[in-house]
């Protein structure tokens, strides 16, 4: 295939995965809409009754205690709800696979071939891919089914932003970016960004669940208890922080010294990447030493996520001094200590 054909394939794959993500979002929204009529206890009882009845006609009605009064649950409604949930998960998996093809095509379109992390558009494609992939990997392990429409909606929205406002044609890397450190440094920053984003979603939902803890029907009833959300958020952040540390304090300075003969240049992206590291270090330290859990920990985690995404979006658009600003042109950035030059870390 020619470079132009690879670029066309990448663009078509981005459009295709966007469509599939949208269909997955619709499936999950239908699932959530159906959950309004299915109490948590009633859903479990309906599944048990359905299993006992086998192929009995009429479906029957399961009775469960979803509160002070008994609640009648239609097993057929429960099955339809579960069907849309499984359909949404399947469509999300297909979208992630097509998303991977888009990234592959983007890298193969360059001459010479390269990793697809050369500008803000490519970083956004890679970052959203990691968010969706991590969700699929952790879906069963951490019980993240309740997060599905949030993750899919978030990924779809960022893909739309990337296509409409961030797109750049494929271009060769600048001399400073053409280094094996591009792979080592940026991949760690992308993985950490995806993990922090998932952890931030858990923290935000924790605050919602803490505010309205009592529903027995609807999506909020399927979200785990606040203590469980707090624990999931902590586990995800505990994974992302050492990866971010590797990107910010090890590979970034080494690459900067290789390119600029200086480990630190006080570039705005360097500074904000370090601020993000400090906030997340404070979050983990406060939890492990002071027992700072719950609401305060969730707020601190969201502050860290805000600094992360401001570094990704704000610096590229609002800073006139950053050597990492390349939002309005093809690859013009260069590596800096402690930050992924491809826009997000």
How many helices does DSSP assign? 10
Q: Estimate the global geometry from the Cα principal axes.
A: flat
Mean pLDDT: 81
Order of helices and strands: HHEEHHHHHHHH
Cα end-to-end separation: 33 Å
Beta-strand portion reads under 5%
Q: Total number of β-strand segments?
A: 2
Helix content: 55-70%
Gyration radius over CA: 23 Å
Strand adjacency order, main sheet: 1-2
Structural class: mainly alpha
Low-pLDDT stretches are 42-71, 326-345
Largest sheet: 2 strands, antiparallel
Membrane topology: Multi-pass membrane protein
Transmembrane segments: 12-30, 87-108, 120-138, 145-167, 179-208, 239-258, 270-286, 298-318
InterPro entries: Cyt_c_assembly (IPR002541), Cyt_c_biogenesis_CcsA (IPR017562), Cyt_c_biogenesis_CcsA/CcmC (IPR045062)
Keywords: Cytochrome c-type biogenesis, Membrane, Transmembrane, Transmembrane helix
